[in-house]
Protein: Aldo/keto reductase
Organism: Paenibacillus xerothermodurans
Amino acid sequence: MIQHIADSTTLHNGVKMPWLGLGVWKTKDGEEVIHAVKSAIQSGYRSIDTAAVYGNEEGVGTGIKESGVPREQLFITSKVWNADQGYDSTLRAFEESRKRLGLEVLDLYLVHWPVKGKYKETWRALEKLYKDGAVRAIGVSNFQVHHLKDLMSDSEVVPMVNQVEYHPLLTQQEVRAFCQANQIQMEAWSPLMQGNLDQPLLTALAAKYAKTPAQIVLRWDLQNGVVTIPKSVNENRIRENADIFDFTLAEDDVESINSLNKNHRYGADPDNFNF
C-alpha cells in the first residue's frame, strides 16, 4: 500500500520512480518555477516533471540546486519536443535540456508525442542515451496502444513509462491494461482535469473522507497504480496535493470513480494533433 510521499514504483529496469511528482507545465521560467520546485521539494516531493517545450528547464535546474536536497535523492524527467524529433536532432535536444537543467544525468527522458514517421528514430536516440548512461530510464508520452505496439515491434528497449492524460473522465482502460501487461508504468498528466473537479461524486467522496476533491482524485490515481504529477505554483496547494498518504479509498469508491469515464480529453488527441 502506498502510504508515504517517499514511496516509489519500480520500473521494469529496476529504477525506482516516486508515485507523486510536481508537474510544471505552464509554470513561468524564473522565480515562479524556482519557487514551485523548492516548495515541492521542501514538502517532501522527490520527483519533478518538465519538458523542453515548457521553456522552464533552467528554472527547474535552479530550484533543484537551491533545494538543498542531494541530487541522487531526486527524480527528474524531461521530454523531447516534436520539432526536435528524429535521431540526431533528439540527441542534440537532449544535450540542450541537460545543459539547461544543469544535470549530468536525467532520471527519465520521454518522447513527448507520437509524431508520425519520426517517433521510431527518436526512440532509437533514446535507446542510445539509455545505453550510454546519460539517462536512467526512457519512455514515451501520449502513446496509444497502436503506437506502443508499433514502437515495440522493432525496438531493443521496451518503454519504462507512458505518460498520458488520465483522470476520472478519461480513464484510458485499454492503454492501462496494455501498459500493465507489458510492465510499462503509466503516469497521469492533467490528473486534476485542469481544475474541472465539480463532479457530484467527487464532492460526496471528499465529504466522506474529509479530503478535497483533488486529494480524492490523486489518491484514486495511486490506487489504480498510476504515477501522478499534479501541477501547481501555489505553496499551500502543492502541500495539499501531497496530503494523500493518510487515507485509503474503499474499493467500491475507486470503482465508482472509474465509472465516471466519458473518454473526455482536455488536451490534444494523440491520433489527431498538429503541432
Notes: The two ends are 39 Å apart (CA to CA).
